[in-house]
């Protein structure tokens, strides 16, 4: 094992970890601010300038709240649920290429923790484990609302992981690789996958909303009918973990959508500028993050526009619309690759 | 039977296939929410910015003094009788020699308490007062943690003697509109 590699990766993991947490914290601020602006309000503006310290205040409040474990709850699983959920949420960031490599003399500093050749499969697998976090949390609470929420979460995740996977199959047929870095590098210039896989993108986007439990697919939470759903019984930082992990998931989904369909860290004209490699790497990181921030905004924009689906509508869209559509998309892509290209 | 002119016949028509996609409607809705980004905000930032209050607003009471700084109240008890919420209690006392600069008439209220949790801010005490002593003002009742802090005594209710301590109630005088 190469020591420099180990140090490189440790530093990178730490940075990615901190950025994920930071983005998730400020996504809560962004959510409240965007919700307010879309509803002609001002939003949080008391803690610090423009309310920028609000996430900090929220975090302190979460830690100071009383940590209640219901008497009838399964103690071990009750703690395991949120831990699993946030751990898996943080793990997914490992395979995302955050930018072009930096060069320090001869030494290459790659901005991807692990360039797995099955990167997408890794993400799908880890996200599925994240579903267990919700299920375990809902089950361990020993509360009917929590159980209903967990039940809904599991059925929703199963229903929507199929079209999610199918839309990726079409993308993989087209790009011939499962590695995220290969897929991103393939989209160099302006050959973004969204232009070649518009239907696949749409299906992926809808499924990403469902996988993140975001409105209009926030049935597992349903604060109005299930009083919080799977996290009804949670309090203090355990609840904070659930909410936080949701925002991390949103961040990762936004990163994934940008990488898979919107050229990742590339933007048209980056190569023609002929910049020094380190400067180009900096710009590539900024480009990726602006795309991510746009998609996080998009997630919130949708949330504050659409009402929640009814349960039968959710299942109908999943099984009778998205799955057939995604199969058709795979067929069209296959036919196109075989006969046209 | 038609009960009202405003009734609308519900149109339970089937959605056509474009509408079943939801997407056009979603895009339309998102455009609407997006347009709200540029709309004027409705928020009033309360402590810094206060919404205009009507001249007849009924807030926390004040016990008035006359021009020479003497208390108007003679503890006649009419306000307490008029009060529908029975929020007012008082003890009367006789003015002693040398207190002429404090109380306008021979009798005054030694204790005058309004329970702000009982008070419904109806303004009947003000109407009942024959001595121009009690008025409701545009001041808002502040919140507090303990219930007993809401029993306001003379220390809070009586206005100050200094010009800064005076509470302006000219807007609430019955002939306010005639004057302006």
Notes on the structure:
The complex is a heterodimer of chains A (341) and B (180). Chain A contains 11 helices and 2 strands. Chain A is mainly alpha-helical and 341 residues long. In chain A, helix 8 runs antiparallel to helix 9. Chain B has a domain of 119 residues: Alpha-Beta Plaits (2-Layer Sandwich). In chain B, 19% of the residues lie in helices and 13% in strands. Chain B has 6 helices and 5 strands, in the order ααβαββαββαα. Classes of the chains: A mainly alpha (341), B alpha+beta (180). Chains A and B meet through loops of A and helix 2 of B.
Write the layout of secondary structure elements.
The complex is a heterodimer of chains A (341) and B (180).
Chain A: H1 3-38, H2 54-64, H3 75-91, E1 102-104, E2 107-109, H4 119-140, H5 144-175, H6 180-186, H7 193-196, H8 198-211, H9 236-261, H10 277-303, H11 311-340
Antiparallel strand pairs in A: 1-2
Helix pairs in contact in A: 1-9, 1-10, 2-9, 3-4, 3-9, 4-5, 5-8, 5-11, 8-9, 9-10
Chain B: H1 17-20, H2 23-35, E1 61-63, H3 78-82, E2 88-94, E3 107-115, H4 124-128, E4 134-136, E5 151-152, H5 154-157, H6 176-179
Antiparallel strand pairs in B: 1-4, 2-3, 3-5
A few lines on this structure:
The complex is a heterodimer of chains A (341) and B (180). Helix content of chain A is 66%, strand content 2%. Chain B starts with 16 loop residues before the first helix and ends with a helix.
List keywords for this structure.
heterodimer, A: 341 residues, mainly alpha, two-stranded antiparallel sheet, 11 helices, globular, B: 180 residues, alpha+beta, Alpha-Beta Plaits, 3-stranded antiparallel β-sheet, 6 helices, 5 strands, 19% helix
> What's the pLDDT, averaged over the residues of chain B?
85
Helix-strand pattern of chain A, N to C?
A: HHHEEHHHHHHHH
Which strand order does the major sheet of chain A show? 1-2
Order of helices and strands of chain B: HHEHEEHEEHH
CATH class placement of one domain in chain B: Alpha Beta
Number of domains of chain A: 1
Low-confidence runs of chain A (pLDDT<50, min 5 residues)?
none
Q: Give the number of DSSP strands of chain A.
A: 2
Low-confidence stretches of chain B: none
Number of H- or I-type helical stretches of chain B: 6
């Amino acid at each position: 094992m190469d020591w420099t590699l180990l140090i490189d990766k440790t530093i990178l993991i730490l940075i990615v970890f901190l950025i994920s947490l930071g983005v998730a914290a400020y996504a809560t601020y962004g959510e409240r601010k965007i919700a307010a602006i879309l509803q002609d309000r001002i939003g949080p503006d008391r803690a610090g300038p423009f309310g920028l310290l609000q996430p900090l205040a929220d975090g302190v409040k979460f830690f100071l709240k009383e940590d209640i474990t219901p008497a009838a709850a399964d103690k071990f699983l009750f703690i395991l649920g949120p831990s699993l959920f946030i751990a898996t949420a943080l793990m997914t960031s490992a395979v995302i290429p955050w930018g072009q490599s930096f060069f320090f003399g001869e030494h290459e500093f790659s901005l991807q923790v692990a360039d797995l050749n099955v990167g997408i499969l890794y993400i799908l697998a880890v996200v599925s484990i994240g579903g267990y976090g919700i299920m375990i949390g809902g089950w361990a609470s020993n509360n009917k609302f929590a159980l209903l929420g967990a039940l809904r979460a599991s059925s929703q995740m199963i229903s929507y992981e199929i079209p999610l996977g199918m839309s990726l199959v079409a993308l993989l047929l087209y790009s011939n690789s499962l590695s995220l870095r290969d897929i991103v590098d393939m989209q160099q210039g302006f050959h973004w996958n969204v232009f070649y896989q518009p239907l696949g993108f749409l299906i992926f986007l809808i499924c990403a909303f469902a996988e993140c439990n975001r409105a209009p697919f926030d049935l597992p939470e349903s604060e109005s009918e299930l009083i919080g759903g799977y996290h009804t019984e949670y309090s203090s930082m355990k609840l904070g973990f659930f909410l936080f992990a949701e925002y991390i998931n949103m961040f990762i989904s936004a990163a994934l959508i940008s990488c898979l369909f919107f050229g990742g860290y590339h933007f048209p004209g980056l190569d023609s500028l002929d910049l020094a490699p380190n400067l180009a790497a900096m710009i590539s990181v900024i480009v990726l993050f602006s795309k991510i921030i746009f998609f996080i905004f998009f997630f919130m924009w949708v949330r504050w526009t659409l009402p929640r689906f009814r349960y039968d509508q959710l299942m109908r869209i999943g099984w009778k619309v998205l799955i057939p559509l995604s199969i058709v998309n795979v067929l069209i892509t296959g036919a196109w690759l075989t006969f046209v290209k | 039977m038609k009960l009202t002119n405003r009734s609308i016949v519900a149109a339970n028509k089937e959605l056509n296939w474009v509408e079943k996609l939801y997407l056009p409607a979603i895009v339309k809705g998102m455009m609407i929410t997006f347009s709200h980004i540029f709309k004027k905000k409705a928020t009033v930032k309360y402590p810094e910015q206060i919404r205009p209050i009507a001249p007849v607003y009924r807030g926390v009471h004040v016990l008035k003094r006359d021009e020479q700084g003497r208390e108007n109240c003679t503890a006649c008890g009419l306000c307490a009788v008029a009060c529908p919420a029975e929020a007012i209690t008082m003890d009367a006392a006789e003015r002693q020699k040398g207190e002429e600069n404090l109380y306008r008439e021979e009798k005054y209220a030694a204790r005058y308490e309004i329970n702000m949790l009982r008070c419904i801010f109806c303004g009947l005490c003000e109407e009942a007062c024959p001595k121009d002593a009690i008025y409701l003002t545009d001041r808002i009742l502040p919140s507090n943690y303990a219930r007993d802090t809401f029993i306001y005594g003379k220390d809070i209710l009586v206005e100050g003697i200094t010009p800064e301590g005076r509470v302006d109630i000219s807007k609430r005088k019955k002939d306010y509109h005639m004057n302006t």
